[in-house]
Amino acid sequence: MAKRATREALGETLIELAEEHENLVALDADLAKSTTTTKFASAFPDRFFDVGVAEQNMTCVAAGLATTGKVCYTGSFAVFASGRAFDQVRNTIAYANLDVKLCPTHAGVTVGADGGSHQSVEDIALMRAVPNMKVVVPADYYEARAAIRAAFSIPGPVYIRLGREPVTAIFDEFYEFNFGKAVKIREGSDVSILATGIMVGAALSAAEMLAADNISAEVVDVHTLKPLDGSAILESAAKTGAVVTAEEHSIIGGLGSAVAELLSEKQPTRLARIGIGDEFGTSGAASELLEKYGLTAGDIVRAVRKLI
Question: Using CA atoms, how far apart are residues 237 and 244, in angstroms rounded to an integer?
Answer without folding.
Answer: 10
